[in-house]
Design goal:
Layout (H helix, E strand, L loop, with lengths): L4 E7 L2 E7 L5 H8 L18 E4 L2 E4 L12 E3 L12 H8 L9 H14 L5 H7 L11 H19 L15
Parallel strand pairs: 1-5
Antiparallel strand pairs: 1-2, 3-4, 3-5
Helix pairs in contact: 2-5
């Protein structure tokens, strides 16, 4: 039996820890140890991108990173984007513009798109296609995915342009 090492990561805003063998991949830590099965294993060769997650703010293929390399990192999986009650703009875009078919690649696509939209909330079609270059969808020609990303970017821009409500804010010294 191989020696195990402690790993502590912040996943979707929550601290998690595990004892892992040095050869354990991040994708298996997320799926098998933390039960975050939205991160898919597609090809086992790092070609498909179904396992893409955000690692310290960067979109990465979690099948290419050892779990011990992620020790101390902040990770966001597709489960951390939004909720059923409040979809993230990327999820909303995919829902409204039919950006998925079978859905197997969708979590990886969404996380790759998340990386793009964190850097550029007004990407061109070429920039969207470039960001999707490392994620393979076998069901579609990407047209609906591109439209979904454009819509998500629009939703994010709208959110950022909305004024902050000061309705429930109090000021120092305000005595009622």
């Amino acid at each position: 039996m191989a020696k195990k090492y402690p790993v502590q990561v912040k996943v979707n805003g929550k601290m998690k820890s595990a004892e892992v063998e040095p050869r354990l991949l991040l994708v298996h830590l997320l799926r098998d140890e933390f039960d975050l099965t939205g991160t898919h294993i597609g090809c086992d060769t790092s070609q498909c991108g179904a396992c893409t997650v955000m690692l310290d703010g960067m979109a990465v293929k979690s099948c290419t990173i050892l779990a011990i390399q992620a020790d101390g990192a902040e990770i966001t999986t597709v489960e951390g984007l939004g909720s059923r009650e409040e979809l993230h703009p990327i999820q909303q875009g995919f829902w409204e513009k039919h950006g998925l078919q079978c859905g197997f690649c969708t979590p990886g696509v969404m996380m790759a798109v998340n990386g793009l939209l964190q850097e550029n909330i007004n990407p061109s079609e070429a920039e969207i296609r470039e960001a999707l270059d490392g994620v393979i969808c076998r069901c579609t020609g990407y047209q609906f995915i591109v439209k979904a990303v454009q819509h998500a970017a629009e939703l994010i821009r709208e959110q950022q342009s909305q004024p902050v409500s000061l309705e429930n804010v109090t000021t120092r010294g305000d005595v009622s």
